[in-house]
Amino acid sequence: MRHMPPAAKDLSPSPVTIAVDLDSSIQSLEALDAAAYRLIGTATCQIDRVANRYVCHLLASTSPQRRGVLTPDDLKERFLNLVADENLRARVAGKTEGVRNVILALAFGSLAANQKDAG
Amino acid sequence: MARFLAPEAFSAATEAISLLPFNFERTGTQQYLVANMVGDFIRLTEDEINKLIDLRATPGDGLYEKAYSAHLITGSNQQAQRQLLALRLRSRMSFLQQATPLHIFVVTLRCEHSCPYCQVSRQSTDRSRFDMSEETAMRALDIAFASPASRIKIEFQGGEPLLNFSLINTIVSTAKVRSASLGKKVDFVIASNLALLDDVVLDFCKSNDILLSTSLDGPADLHNKNRPRPGANSHELATTGIRRAREVLGPDRIGALMTTTEASLDRVDEIIDEYLQLGLDGIFLRPLSPFGFAIKTKQFQKYDAKKWLSFYERGLRRVLEINRQGTPFREFYAALILTRMLSDRPIGYVDLRSPAGIGLGALVYNYDGSVFASDEGRMLAETGDNAFRLGNVDRDTYESLVLSDKLIDAISSSLTQCAPECSTCVYESHCGADPVYHHATQGDALGIKPLSAFCARQKGIMGLLLDILENSPEDAAILRRWVS
Predict the structure, then answer these.
(1) ipTM value
(2) pTM to 2 decimals?
(3) Measured torsion, CA atoms of residues B65, B66, B72, B76, in degrees rounded to the nearest 10
């Protein structure tokens, strides 16, 4: 029996998907989360833990306006760059949290003291 | 003869170094834009940024000197840089010490224009229903004068505020009496389309030192298309009013604002030339806001951030060209951002601050006595969303409005200093929270910044300004002159 041809052809491009896996003993989940957040609008990222790996399933946005022209390699490179940057940010934060608090206290600590005096 | 000591004698440079907080953004292959805690920018390679984080910079290697002067590293035992950063940070945020300097009185919602992009959902009829009463105005003045700012600005808005000119008259005379008795300075602005401007209004503005602010969208056909009114003569009335106000009040006592519609996108040169021909000293290239009739009539959806940025860049480059030809002329939004980027002056501009300017920067008294945290908040309310309605002049005081849970929740939940992406954004020091915009577009005061057109525009404009500052010396000199 012959099947009816479809009434309309689906012209939307097949979605760009890719899986990136990273070693969970050296890669923090926080950095992956932050990278996934920055990717919102360009792609979604679902992170699964499989044994000692984090597997990041990336699905490019279907909106051509948001996605632009994105190949699987582009998407992978973009994501890995974001992860590398988040790892760098975590290192900076780790080394500067104390001094950041000192600077904030120097800048605004007297305001808290004034408030205490007033109260 | 006195001689310099040998380099080794300057021992401070040999002590251990420690890292100071900074944000960064990847800008290309192995290239980063880096900003210190107060937003001074520097470019580093990937290798340099890694060396810095690993504290492998050493005196004489170039990176050490670059990072030290940019306040990215300091001597472990040195306090001067921390104190300097704290001082600069405190100075940049000191707008917070002058709480609520702006008080907007919506003296009527009536208007004789019928602009499809109107953000305040003007009304055309029923004077008694849409005009502010004197009683409401006096209660609003009580609240305005109770705010802690030592100098306040009262801005009259509408609808078209000159349709309730008698109330403006009463408010100004009462406010001046209170100003004298309380020792709190007060300035006045009337935001008007100038269609009703006459000699009586001009004399009143002159004798009370009142500034005028108006709308001018560009050449006649564009302006009249955007701003329809009976007689189709909005442009003629606005430009005649601007000329007349400049003559009577002085060239610096009237300013004009434009709003970008889809029809404006290809005409930025003509729009700027219109401002230039009228003798105005600059232009504020503004996108449409997602409020009021701009949403109802779908004007807001007609162009995205990318198209607007392209319009903005063409406009900014045209403005720079005008300056290169010898006529001083500014793009005011760039001037605001540049003042944040190149100085530590406290800029309390509502869209460019965190904590947000809602309530802390401005309060809006609507014609019916409702009080809103911002002008955009009352625009939302006109289409049924009361998220930023803080109370009513009949029942509330300044304290109850500013300390309301609604305001505190919106401000604290939208702080860029601790928001995802914003807190680590290289532009954070120069940006703002804008909770009303994000509430209007995403239903959340914080918003998801990768989806935010506000974020895209801010990053786009700051990236463009940095590019000009770094790569076009003649234009950079012009931009530096705009820093007020």
Answers:
(1) 0.87
(2) 0.90
(3) -10
> Do B93 and A107 lie within an 8 Å CB cutoff?
yes
User: CA-to-CA distance for B81 and B430, rounded, in angstroms?
Assistant: 21
CA B312, distance to chain mean position in Å, is 16
Q: List the single residue in B with minimal CA-CA distance to A33.
A: B420
Contacts of B424 in chain A (CB under 8 A): 34, 89
Query: Is A88 within 8 Å of B53 when comparing Cβ atoms?
Result: yes
Distance spanning both ends of chain A, measured CA to CA: 87
B212 in Cβ contact with B205 (< 8 Å): yes
**Domain residue ranges in chain A:** 17-62+69-118
Mutate which of B17, B19, B54, B441 to disrupt the A interface (most A C-beta within 10 Å)? Answer: B19
The residue written with tokens 């029923």 in the block is B126
Chain A residue at shortest CA distance from B52:
A92
Would you call A85 an interface residue with chain B, using a CB distance cutoff of 8 Å?
yes
Domain ranges of chain B: 17-91
Architecture of the structural domain at A17-62+69-118: 2-Layer Sandwich (3.30)
Residue of B37, B93, B451 lying closest to A40 (CB–CB): B451
Q: How far apart are CA B483 and CA B9, in angstroms?
A: 40
User: Are residues B18 and A89, on separate chains, in Cβ contact within 8 Å?
Assistant: no
Mean pLDDT confidence for A45-74: 86
Nearest to B223 by CA among B238, B241, B242, B240: B238
A61 and A43 Cβ atoms separated by less than 8 Å? yes
Asked if A103 and B86 come within 8 Å (Cβ–Cβ), the reply is yes
Q: Which amino acid is at B444?
A: D
Cα–Cα dist A53/A30, whole Å:
14
Contact B83 A40 (CB under 8 A): no
Cα–Cα distance between B239 and B259 in angstroms, integer? 16
pLDDT tens profile B400-457: 999 999 999 999 999 999 999 999 999 999 999 999 999 999 999 999 999 999 999 9
Long-range CB contact pairs, B30-33, < 8 A, 24+: B33/B426, B33/B466
What 8-state DSSP symbol labels residue B384? T
- Which residues of chain B are under the pLDDT cut of 70? 1-2, 7-14, 117-127, 292-301
